[in-house]
Protein 1
Amino acid sequence: MIGILGGAGLAAAGVMLQGILKNPLASPYTLGIGSGAGFGAAIAITTGIGAIGGSFAIAGNAFLFALIPAVVIYLLVHYKDATPETMILAGIAMVYVFEAGVTLIQYFARPEDVEQIVFWTVGDLGRATGTQTVLVLIVLVVCLPLLYKMSWSLNAMLAGDQTAASLGVDVERKRIQIMGLASIITTVVISFTGSIAFVGLVAPHIGRIAVGTDHRYLLPGSCILGAVLVLGSDIVARTVLAPIIIPVGVITSLLGGPLFLYLVLKRRKSYW
């Protein structure tokens, strides 16, 4: 269940972020959200210090630090009128900062803590509990319908901000709303599963080939593809070297990287 819900959520976040940024390389991790969560989790694992206590200490820290890139990008948009290109560059800069922080923590951490950090940063479905799965389900039930309601506005924005504004779309407000909802979905999912790479990047591209660029169809289609991608990767991770279980993020990266390269080379026309 956490694989299905997590894959659907990451794919939904990816397709909407690619839409508002008009960039086929945009994803929750391109904007630094995944790296921020990894840094927060590493702090909790090595120091035992978390935003909340108990069994949610690591997830709480991951959620808190994953919000930092989203807040930074929001401030850039709100106060500096940042362009989509600037937002992508800011996200990549934060990726490097957080990954450097994780590397520094691993350098000084105990071997058992380093092992736990590595498992968390590559993604692992086996540690999610029933309560965490229900929380992810609640977030998706609330956020996905809101994103779907903005599908038409996003279609208009793809034609250009001026065109969308002439059709009555408040471009800046919609962009912030979509980014906020996508960030919430991403932070909640990866707070419990770790950083599962490539799902939010690859699933939308497969969806565009299958159903086109209309977000009224692309959003639900990408959710289904993301769920299938994570679930299939988890099955492979549990069986290919059984009884050894490989972290699901390793499989999604091994499958997603070559698949994404194939899609890029095969697709000759514009993404939008």
Note: The mean pLDDT is 86.
Protein 2
Amino acid sequence: MDHSVKPVPRVGAVIQARMGSTRLPGKSLLPLPLPSGPTVLAHVINRARCTKGISAVVVATTTLSQDDVLAAAAAEAGAVVFRGSEHDVLDRFCSAAVAFELDVVVRLTADNPAVDPHYVGLAVAHHLANGLDYTLTAGLPLGTNTEVINRTALATAAAQAQQHEEREHVTPYLRRHPELFRSATFTLALPEKVSQLRLTLDFPSDYALLQTLFTSLPLNFSLLQLEGLLRQYPWLPAINSHNQQVSP
């Protein structure tokens, strides 16, 4: 037996979710498409489950009673559930990784239903092949980029991060301390008209665009399939392009 062979890291998607959105309350449980499609959260879970290299899908929500319905919906959609701090999301992620014995975490959020399993899988493969602690993708539409993080890096950040935004937004500490972590930006190429789309869900107009996409294309559509739809309906980006993203 060759004892020099390293064990394969256990990679899991951890989906950040809560009901308490001020701009669009309960957005993660909205149907997509209307009137009776899967929930936004179910789409994220299903796409994570379809990603090559991911062996566990965890929905990390809070211990608040208002998130009981979200935890139940996550379990019904096939995810396991971890419940932790409402505001210390960094600790929630780190604790979820420990609870489910994840060596590597793919960070997703429950308001991004168009995340593409193909590109998430490429990011995981790049992360593992290059022995990185933290990988951030770039070049994809807003709401479809992802982060891949080693549990050891999460644990370091959880032990040392002091600022509120570092704990609420999970990864700022890793980006601010390149001397501590092996980090890389993994840039992926898409047609410009696709890469400039806004595919996250914060406002009613975001929901309107996603409704159009999920009505016009198969439920498991890829980002590349959007190119043909944009050729046919070049005005689609105008539905929500005026929305401003708040960056951590």
Note: The mean pLDDT is 95.
Protein 3
Amino acid sequence: MEEEVEIINSIFEGCATISPETFTVCLKLPQSDLGVEVTLWYPVAYPEEAPRVVKVSKLNAELDAEKRLQQIIDHTFIPGEVYMYTFLDEIEVDVKDMEAQMETEMEISNLAQKIRQQIGEGKGSQHIGKWSVTSEIRDRGSTFIGRACVANSESEVEMLLADLFEDKKVAKANHKMAAWRVDTGTPGIMAQDFDDDGEAGAGGCILHIMQLAQVTNAVVVVCRYFGGVHIGPDRFKHIKQSTRDALINAGLIKI
């Protein structure tokens, strides 16, 4: 192993680093544009037995790089022959392919993010897709939109709400009224709470609908965008309707 590392480093300076105590060699792939590194474990019987891929850095886990590179070793390794240089040569095409695939996925992700920002969604929310969304209810300039999502713990409720409020469109709402109910696992004990967010009685109204429908493990948010005209008690009618529609859209209650 030490002789091979010395030879490899004479060809590709600083490419290989050996760890004799763990029988591993870290290879900084000279053909990689992203600085991919592969760690190989060498059995005591090497070169009679093939090395194993321990780790591949800088590539997405979804690419399953360790498995792909190990398959190359299994198909190209010849017992009794040193293999480090052959390995670098054999994996060049596959590494380039995985890097190109990852870059394409990143470009698509960045484009999708720009599109979401252009339409007022996705400023910072990572979980916006988990929420069901209602149609808008408009009344004298005010707009009401309901959202519902499954949540299995109070900590998950907190995470989902904090994340949702990072969304650009949600953040613009004048009132983000919310309520949630979570089964504690103890018979007869339900964790539940609400937030009026400046619209007195609104959060309790949402929670009351959830209680009547016996909804558990869920969180509901109704956003109101104020249009400058006070609509009186009618606002609670719209909040209730947005709550029901959100729960129905999320499959949490049946029509």
Note: The chain has two domains: 2-100, 128-249.
Protein 4
Amino acid sequence: MTEHETNNALQNALALALVEHPRASLQELACAVGVSKATLYRFCPTRESLLERLQSSSLNAYKSAIKDANLDTAEPREGVRKLLENCYKNKELTLFTIQHWQPELLENGECIIAQEKIDAFFLRGQQSGHFRVDISAAAITECFHGLFFAMIEAERLGRVPRARVLTIIELILMEGASTASSTPS
């Protein structure tokens, strides 16, 4: 494993440890992820610096997930699938961000730009007839985020099998929850 991969693995483990033990000290976190206190202190010398690093890494992972999904050119179903797969790679950081949410994160210019890229993807999908037009692209983006957040938390809690998480999100997002034969009353 390269140093970068080791750091990412440690970072994801720490993010999940903070989700499961939000008030843990650095010593308790080191124990939870199986590293020495010295190793953790070299990674982040204070709890505050750890929280900042994880928040920053979460935003960077989100931006990379969007960029690597090639949403500017991807076909709608493939774009959704790639975006889900890319976001899932760092699901622990997403869980951390949800639990340690701060409203000022929405004001981050990079976060806004990333969200606008997803909005634009869904708008193109609407224009090509792949997504409903009676729901705004921004609302579909929010549904994407909400489904992703809820399903990775459900997986963590053991309510949804890991192997089905991405498939369930894709099916609900692309086809809805109704059966093909159901009709509205």
Note: The chain has a mean pLDDT of 90.
